[in-house]
Amino acid sequence: MENKDFAVDKTKKILKISLAVLLAAVIVCGVFFAGFFTHKLTRPAAVNSYEWALNVIDENYCGERREGKIQINLDDYTKEEISLKALAATLDDYSAYYTAAEYAEVLKDNSGEKSGVGVTTNFIKDRGAYVVGVSGNSPAFKAGVQVGDVFTAGKAAGGERVEFKTSADFSGFVSARATGEKFTLFTEDGSYELSKEEYAASYAAMFTSKAEYGFCYGGEENYYYRLTDKMGFLPEDAAYIKLSQFYGNAANEVGYLISKFNAENKTTLILDLRNNGGGYVSVMQNMAGYFLSGGNHSREAMIAEYKNGSKDVFGWRNYSAEAAVKDGTEVYVLANSGTASASEALIGVLVSYGVLKYENIIISDYTENYLNWAGANAKTGRTYGKGIMQSTFKNPQTGEAFKLTTARILWPNGKCIHGAGLSEADGCRTAPADWTATANDEELRFVVENYLG
């Protein structure tokens, strides 16, 4: 009996000691986390955001201007001294910081939900705002604004006419208009009645020698078809597809156009990627499938190499052979110094699998007229040369986000075009171009007359 009582007493003693140790540990942890969270909560919110951003950069960024861990004591900063946009500016040209509101707007815009007039312009001194792009389905598109138009002045309803002497004059006038407010933009030889509106952007259109196909979201049908002689110079067996970006519904739009291409038994396809700065990798993957599903190809579309040496392989979407460009179709691509990122990646997929020949990549060679306007850093006779990928990291606590360069991009054949782009050195050919976009597209006519069959 004595031995039993002794064992019970010993067990009780051990239990009391264990509970005391556990309680002490809980108290210590509680004090630590209370101090930690008190420290976090009592610091300015901007300081905590900055700390989050630094951690994201240190773990993921692989760009050109930052090496090693960033050593900063954030407690030495006040809210006013901290700028995440300034931090982004210390990285490469592709990294960016977005507030929660800005990031929500970016996601909305990239999904195809746009707001505004829908034009892209270059400002030419002593002339005005030269239109180099019109967003499909936008107010400008519906009003009939054309590439090559030059906006010289604007007038709000009941207001004074404003002459556009600088780029800021034009952008300021348009920015000052409320959504739905009617206003007039005057050109060198006419005018347009416009208003800023919410609209669903379309990204692709196809022309044959006799017809035009495109998309008009929001109407009774999500596409349009009309007879036109706008590109009557195209060969009977050819179709021309203009693709402006890799966002929104772009891949589905191209798929619809490919179905029309096949239905009309076309055998030559001209894909225009001029001024297409890219977009989402996922859209590029889907797009690549229309060109590859008709053949016997491996499934790699792109390879990403990360900071830690790991790699991701991005595949392409497989479609039925009936929905794909037929094997043996002669494919041509138009490109220029604004052809970048996902556009160059798509070119890489097509080249890697033999769908596109280097000699069928036609690149804009700008005249002195454009080069003198663009300045010393203008690129001509080559694509942009963006062979890196960005990823966006969202702060779950605040909704803000940081877009960072996170990987180097390789084509399926192992080629990386970053910093070099594509040019005649790769076997591409060039076409003379007076500007990045012109009303009659003399560059396209040159390609048809000199390089097609």
Unreliable stretches, pLDDT < 50, 5 or more residues? 1-8, 28-42
Assembly state of the chains shown: single chain
Q: What is the total tally of β strands?
A: 21
Strand content: 15-25%
Total helical segments: 11
Order of strands, main sheet, comes to: 12-11-10-13-14-17-18-21
Give me a quick take on this structure.
By secondary structure, the chain is α+β, with helices and mostly antiparallel strands.
Explain what you see:
The protein is α+β, with helices and mostly antiparallel strands. It is built from 11 helices and 21 strands. It has helices spanning 2-42, 45-60, 84-89, 100-110, 139-143, 167-175, 250-263, 281-292, 342-352, 368-374, 442-451, and strands at 96-98, 113-116, 119-124, 128-134, 150-156, 161-163, 183-187, 191-194, 197-200, 204-207, 211-214, 224-227, 238-243, 268-272, 300-306, 311-315, 330-335, 361-366, 388-394, 401-410, 429-433. An 8-stranded mixed beta sheet has the order 12-11-10-13-14-17-18-21, sandwiched between helices. Strands 3, 4, 5, 6, 7 and 8 form a 6-stranded antiparallel beta sheet that branches. Strands 1, 15, 16, 19 and 20 form a 5-stranded antiparallel beta sheet that branches. Helix 8 (281-292) runs parallel beside helix 9 (342-352). The longest helix has 41 residues, at 2-42. The protein starts with a helix and ends with a helix. 36% of the residues are buried.
Task: Please outline the helices and strands.
Layout: H1 2-42, H2 45-60, H3 84-89, E1 96-98, H4 100-110, E2 113-116, E3 119-124, E4 128-134, H5 139-143, E5 150-156, E6 161-163, H6 167-175, E7 183-187, E8 191-194, E9 197-200, E10 204-207, E11 211-214, E12 224-227, E13 238-243, H7 250-263, E14 268-272, H8 281-292, E15 300-306, E16 311-315, E17 330-335, H9 342-352, E18 361-366, H10 368-374, E19 388-394, E20 401-410, E21 429-433, H11 442-451
Parallel strand pairs: 13-14, 14-17, 17-18, 18-21
Antiparallel strand pairs: 1-20, 2-9, 3-4, 4-5, 5-6, 5-7, 7-8, 10-11, 10-13, 11-12, 15-16, 15-20, 19-20
Helix pairs in contact: 7-8, 8-9
